[in-house]
Design a protein that fits this description.
By secondary structure, the chain is an all-alpha fold. The chain has two domains: 101 residues, Orthogonal Bundle (Endonuclease Iii, domain 2), CATH 1.10.1670; 98 residues, Hypothetical protein, domain 2 (Endonuclease III, domain 1, Orthogonal Bundle), CATH 1.10.340.30. Helix content is 53%, strand content 3%. It has a two-stranded antiparallel sheet with strand order 1-2. Helix 1 packs across helix 10, helix 2 runs antiparallel to helix 5 and helix 2 runs antiparallel to helix 7. It starts with a helix and ends with a strand.
Length: 216
């Protein structure tokens, strides 16, 4: 089975398992989603949700987040840089986009602290636009385990996956692999021969990914 065929079969299974792509981050406003995704870098969604439970009662719009204080997100890794980027992103959204989340990847990545992965998660979550595949640690792990890429860089992995998978199915990739990684096939080494995706390509049960290293 070549990579393209394998990728298409894997995503077809993810579509059946998780037919309605939706982040597990909690939010009520569009800018809150952007903030939650920014906070989620190198942090679990559970930890982010614990932090934002109170934070989002106070801050709702981009204008509100201009006043965010570092101590209010101190439970999040790299909170100082994230607080600065959130405030700067809020300033750009207010100044250049009239307080609204932009509708293109190109515009989103002009915001401080927003790269390709964040832009795609937000674009899909806010506008239902799926112009790229967001690669996080889960997507990277499975892309390597199922031999869908030769790269370790997250954006390069995204581009590899976009070449393999029809655009109409891009919306299922990030959410599908994230949920599958959390609830079916975690990162620790284990026997996953009977897992739905491994049944498609059994060799994945011999490949494990840790901190940028593939082990067999």
């Amino acid at each position: 089975m070549d990579r393209k065929s394998r990728a298409i079969k894997l995503v077809a299974k993810l579509k059946k398992l998780y037919p309605k792509p939706k982040t597990e981050l909690t939010y009520k406003t569009n800018f809150q989603l952007l903030v939650a995704v920014m906070l989620s870098a190198q942090c679990t969604d559970k930890k982010v949700n614990e932090c934002t439970d109170n934070l989002f009662k106070k801050y709702k719009t981009a204008k509100d987040f201009l006043k965010i204080k570092e101590k209010e997100i101190a439970s999040i890794p790299f909170f100082r840089n994230k607080a600065k980027n959130i405030a700067r992103a809020a300033k750009v959204v207010e100044r250049d986009f009239k307080g609204r989340i932009p509708k293109t990847i190109e515009e989103l990545i002009t915001l401080p602290g927003v790269a390709y992965k964040t832009a795609n998660v937000v674009l899909g979550g806010v506008h239902g636009i799926w112009d790229g595949i967001a690669t996080d640690t889960h997507v990277r792990r499975f892309a390597l385990r199922f031999d869908l890429t030769n790269n370790n860089d997250l954006t390069k992995i995204s581009k590899d996956l976009e070449e393999l998978i029809p655009k109409k199915d891009w919306r299922y990739v990030n959410n599908g692999f994230v949920l599958y990684g959390r609830y079916v096939c975690p990162a620790r080494k284990h026997d996953c021969a009977e897992h739905p995706l491994t049944k498609i390509w059994p060799k994945a049960n011999e490949i494990w990914v840790k901190a940028g290293i593939i082990s067999k």
